[in-house]
Amino acid sequence: MAADKASNNIYADFKAQVNMTATELKKWLATDESNSVGQDSGDGTSVGHKSGERIIEILNKKKADLTEADEAHMHKVHSYISRHLAQGPEKDVEHSRWRYSLMNWGHDPLKK
């Protein structure tokens, strides 16, 4: 990963927003709830589900081993989570498609 200020900022933003561990995310992606949400990427798997798989790869890497492609995906994840956090439902968050979608992107809004 490029060692400039923008790279460090996106890494920090990504780490702050992705509040699920690689293990938690892998377990989540195997659920029916995970597979029930998101826009189809064209092969029957949602864009968010594919993103979650990519996030697991990134979480399992050392910071020094991150590539420009990883950095680009971290930026995409940060943008998605930021945008969707502003659109949350006012009630029944726990079982909402909104939460399930965010969790596919590595963020559980109910996790403290």
Description:
With 112 residues, this protein is an all-alpha fold. The protein has helices at 5-17, 22-29, 32-35, 47-59, 68-85, 97-104. It has one domain (10-105). Helix content is 57%, strand content 0%. It is globular, with a radius of gyration of 14 Å. The protein starts with a helix and ends in an 8-residue tail after the last helix.
* Uncertain regions spanning at least 5 consecutive residues: none
Mean pLDDT: 91
Please write the string of helix (H) and strand (E) elements.
Answer: HHHHHH
Radius of gyration: 14 Å
Number of E-type strands: 0
Primary descriptors:
globular; 112 residues; mainly alpha; single chain
Question: Would you kindly provide a brief summary of this structure?
Answer:
This is DUF3140 domain-containing protein. The chain is an all-alpha fold and 112 residues long.
Q: What is the topological layout?
A:
Blueprint: H1 5-17, H2 22-29, H3 32-35, H4 47-59, H5 68-85, H6 97-104
Helix pairs in contact: 1-5, 2-4, 4-5, 4-6
